[in-house]
Design brief:
The chain is an alpha/beta fold. Helix content is about 40%, strand content about 15%. The protein contains 13 helices and 12 strands. It has helices at about 10-20, 35-45, 60-65, 85-90, 100-120, 120-130, 160-170, 185-190, 200-205, 225-230, 245-255, 275-280, 295-310, and strands spanning about 1-5, 25-30, 50-55, 70-75, 95, 150-155, 175-180, 195, 205-210, 235-240, 260-265, 285. The longest helix is centred in the middle third of the chain and has 19 residues, at about 100-120. The radius of gyration is 21 Å and the shape is elongated. It starts with a strand and ends in a 10-residue tail after the last helix.
């Protein structure tokens, strides 16, 4: 019997798969909040598998608390910066994540929603309408910007960046620039995307959207220097991980109109969102919900369960990270 500790209740689709397996014993932290660190260290004792979510830091201390029998960490999420991969590999612990076309599409749609909200000033105009401050139409009333024909700069040409490029190229005739550690030939062939250095992308783009994982090399990838390269009319969008952007530098740029605005779904010190950022009128903020659809979250739970079942059956998990 393999013991699994699940750090937060996940959608039932995945749990049903796990419960059907008679070789598994599930223990779920059922409170709908982040598990306290002390509770996490206590609850993982003696388990063989941890099914974690991005709010839990699974480091050497957690692995020590679990014990030598811990052999797998199944992360519920595409990102895995909450897990110490080096430590896990050293101990022979398999780590998996939950990528898939469903989450790719949801995040791409969320980015597009943020783009339109920023360009058309939807938050501002909604507040004016709801507060009954609309006093009549005028030719220069609350002017925004269009999307069509703009230049989109994608930092990270992977699955989400590629989906976004295709939607916006086909639907709105955007010019696509992208930057990554290597070229994506398929992306270029399908969308006409142009590979370029980050500095050139920042200088030429009307919208800059981030789609890279959080690694030591991408921490504060976008800081004061990079923001200073952007057009004053440009918008920055981040649905990847908060610490990829230097939040203090971004607030300064927004307060001083160095860029036109920002659409953020992630933050440097989640769940805290700085009050200075929340007070700005040129931002659209969402609480890490880019993939928050019923379909996507159920699909993620199935992928997490599938990884675990493959592992206990002696097969390579489909989404092993090492």
């Amino acid at each position: 019997m393999q013991k699994i500790f699940i750090t937060r209740h996940i959608p039932e689709a995945g749990l049903k798969l796990l419960r059907k397996n008679r070789h598994l014993k599930l223990d779920i932290y059922k409170k709908d909040k982040i598990i306290p660190r002390r509770t996490l260290l206590r609850r993982v004792r003696g388990v063989d598998i941890i099914l974690s979510i991005l709010t839990e830091k699974i480091d050497a201390a957690v692995m020590d608390a679990a014990g030598l029998q811990l052999k797998m960490i199944a992360n519920y999420g595409v990102g895995f910066d909450n897990i110490d991969l080096v430590e896990a590999k050293k101990r022979g612990i398999i780590v998996t994540n939950t990528p898939g076309p469903e989450i790719t599409e949801a995040v791409a749609e969320h980015v597009i929603a943020l783009m339109f909200a920023l360009a058309h000033r939807l938050i501002t105009v909604n507040k004016i309408a709801c507060k009954n401050k609309y006093k009549g139409w005028g030719p220069e009333l609350l002017l925004g910007n269009g999307i069509g024909g703009s230049t989109l700069g994608i930092v990270g040409g992977g699955a989400i960046g590629s989906a976004l490029a295709k939607h916006l190229r086909d639907g709105f005739n955007l010019k696509i620039l992208y930057h990554d550690v290597k070229k994506n030939i398929k992306l270029e062939a399908e969308t006409g995307a142009i590979f370029c250095p980050l500095s050139k992308l920042l200088k030429q783009s009307d919208f800059v959207t981030i789609h890279v994982p959080l690694l030591p090399s991408t921490h504060h990838l976008i800081g004061a220097t990079e923001l200073s390269l952007m057009k004053k009319s440009a918008f920055l969008i981040n649905t990847a991980r908060g610490p990829i952007v230097d939040e203090a530098a971004l607030v300064h740029a927004l307060q001083n109109n160095l860029i036109a605005g920002a659409g953020l779904d992630v933050y440097e010190h989640e769940p805290r969102i700085p009050r200075t950022l929340r007070k700005l009128s040129n931002v659209v903020l969402t609480p890490h919900t880019a993939s928050a659809t019923n379909y996507v979250r159920n699909a993620m739970s199935v992928v997490a369960a599938t990884n675990i079942i493959a592992f206990i059956q002696g097969n390579p998990p489909p989404n092993a990270l090492h």
